[in-house]
Amino acid sequence: MKLTFLGAAQNVTGSRFLVESEKSKILIDCGLFQERELRSRNWEKFPVNPAQITSVLLTHAHIDHCGYLPKLVKEGFRGKIYCTSPTADITQISLLDSANLQEADASYKRLRHKKEGRKGPYPEAPLYTQEDAKNIFPYFRKIQYKQSFKAAKNIHAAFYTAGHILGAAMIELEVEENGVSKKIVFSGDIGRWHRPILNDPHIFKTADYVIMEATYGDRLHEEEKACLEKFQEIIHETYRRGGNIVIPTFAIERTQEILYDLNQLLKEDKIPHLLTFVDSPMAKKVTEIFEQYPDYLDQEARETLKRYNELFNFPLLKFTSTMNESKAINHIKGTAIIMAGSGMCTGGRVKHHLASNISRPQSTILFVGYQATGTLGRTILERPREVRIFGQTYPVRANIERINGFSAHADKGELLKWVKGIKKKPKEIFIVHSEKEVALDFASLVSQTVDTKVTAPEYKHSVEI
């Protein structure tokens, strides 16, 4: 049996792992590369004939894990896409949003070419359209946590809670080959313990091989109490200056967690009652999905939902739908909290709010999630003197802040807790979903901790297991 790392190998995004046996080929995740220097991989021909792939198993609905699916279908995939029910629903929203952004980006490139005679490195056509995205919906098959199912002729699989975003799963494969059974665990994105809304990550007792993410394998998150105190302080200081708090957020999970925490802080009267905008039609739809799946929430969230019939709403909260509503936000005098996507500032409405606020010393740009190398978010986080947005240069005068405690990814300590929980020592552990130096350093740390072979594979590396 062969395992090939077609993405998220010594980089964070583009999750794609190919499992090949004598009888079948399956793909774990099918994501887009989001780092600027790696986006060309999205346009390349898929390394394996998609028509030969039996099925795709999705860990969750973030675009770097599911965003390549429409292109895979365009290139010939006709198998089944297995995932949890919330993941299926949210992925459909994510892909339509992704397609819309790509169509808009292609239109902008064509206009720029016409006006300036300048061509970029990628085609002036979308990677896929909204129609392409809709075409994959019939391929989804919804699976419950802990439900064993046949993913291919000789491969059975089961999903377990990952604690990362709603419906996110870790995947356990049981592969029968030549009379031998092998257990392979894909961690997906490992969530956090004792965070609101979702249940804690599942820990496996045994595994022969483990493919483990380590996005934050080099750092520890702030404690929840310190995180909320810093959040309060940033809101108060920005309010005193008369600026806006712009929070680039992922529409899935991060937006809902921030709303949940804001709701608690407002109930305790710990922050000023400010106009709060969620400037993302996608986030609005995803927020509604949370309330449709109470069985996927932790006990506290279920009780809150049962008591109030809602989880996230509070006075002065406004979800914006239209572009005119979005533009109107920047005409409001005084302080507002503005949450908008995308979380890494690679596209979407947040770029307009950045353009309006990044040169204002009164305003704060607050990052609450991971910023991959090569993204606009990472560039801003490094506090340059100036930054380009929509082809225009803006001086960076706003306050740039970061809070790691809101992360939906396990930190170094939590990652070690997860891998040490596997009682039977795996034959090999592969570290993925982290930048090269982080992956190599964390692999070394894990090998010392669990006393087994640990590697950080490169892109397109194959291994017989």
Helix content: 25-40%
Assigned CATH superfamily of the largest domain: Ribonuclease Z/Hydroxyacylglutathione hydrolase-like
- CATH architecture label name of the largest domain: 4-Layer Sandwich
Distance between the termini: 6 Å
Mean pLDDT: 93
Uncertain segments are none
Tally of separate helices? 14
Q: Give the strand tally.
A: 22
What Rg do the Cα atoms give? 22 Å
Strand neighbour order, sheet with most strands? 6-5-4-3-2-1-22
The CATH class name of the largest domain reads: Alpha Beta
| % residues in beta strands | 15-25%
Number of domains: 2
Shape: globular
| Largest sheet descriptor | 7 strands, mixed
CATH topology of the largest domain: Metallo-beta-lactamase, Chain A
Structural class given helices, strands, pairing? alpha/beta
Quick synopsis:
The protein has helices at residues 40-43, 63-66, 69-74, 85-116, 130-135, 224-241, 254-267, 281-290, 299-308, 323-328, 350-357, 376-381, 412-420, 436-450, and strands spanning 2-5, 17-20, 25-28, 55-57, 80-83, 140-142, 149-152, 155-161, 169-177, 180-186, 209-213, 245-248, 275-279, 317-319, 336-340, 364-367, 386-389, 392-395, 399-402, 428-432, 453-455, 462-464. The chain is an alpha/beta fold and 465 residues long.
Furnish the topology, listing elements before pairings.
Elements: E1 2-5, E2 17-20, E3 25-28, H1 40-43, E4 55-57, H2 63-66, H3 69-74, E5 80-83, H4 85-116, H5 130-135, E6 140-142, E7 149-152, E8 155-161, E9 169-177, E10 180-186, E11 209-213, H6 224-241, E12 245-248, H7 254-267, E13 275-279, H8 281-290, H9 299-308, E14 317-319, H10 323-328, E15 336-340, H11 350-357, E16 364-367, H12 376-381, E17 386-389, E18 392-395, E19 399-402, H13 412-420, E20 428-432, H14 436-450, E21 453-455, E22 462-464
Parallel strand pairs: 3-4, 4-5, 5-6, 10-11, 11-20, 12-15, 12-16, 13-14, 13-15, 16-19, 20-21
Antiparallel strand pairs: 1-2, 1-22, 2-3, 7-8, 8-9, 9-10, 17-18
Helix pairs in contact: 4-8, 13-14
